[in-house]
Amino acid sequence: MVTVIKLMAEGTIEERVIALQQEKKELIDQVLSRQAENTLTGLSEE
Question: Which is nearest to 8 in space by CA: 26, 25, 38, 19?
Fold first, then answer.
């Protein structure tokens, strides 16, 4: 078993980098969910 504890100081560059990574992840999730939705709604009965 491995336990990971991440410590981060407030107001640092590391904090901003992690925030940007989270924003990018959320953007990618939105794009992928829209693509999946468009794929499903774009299907025809043919």
Answer: 19
The structure's pTM equals 0.58
In one letter, which amino acid is 9?
A
Residue 12 CA to residue 3 CA, distance in Å, equals 24
> Which residue has 């999730």 as its token pair?
29
Query: 44: which 2 tokens?
Result: 């025809």
Beta strands in 1-46 (DSSP E): none
Q: From first to last of the 46 residues of the chain, give the pLDDT tens digit.
A: 999 998 878 889 988 998 999 999 999 999 888 877 777 666 666 5
